[in-house]
Amino acid sequence: MRYAASETLEIIRTVEQSSLGLRRTLGQIGIPRSTCYHWYDR
Fold first, then answer.
1. Total number of domains constituting the chain
2. CA-to-CA distance for 8 and 22, rounded, in angstroms?
3. Could you tell me if 40 and 31 are in contact, meaning their C-beta atoms sit under 8 angstroms apart?
4. pLDDT 10s digits, 1-42
């Protein structure tokens, strides 16, 4: 599934502000870690 740039940015902000940590936050959202790391690299 592709996400719009605004959605990607919102997900990244959510992960950064979460107190649960990267793995747990992404698990709850349903985003693979590899996808998140790819977004950060961009």
1. 1
2. 15
3. no
4. 788 999 999 999 999 999 999 999 999 999 999 999 999 888
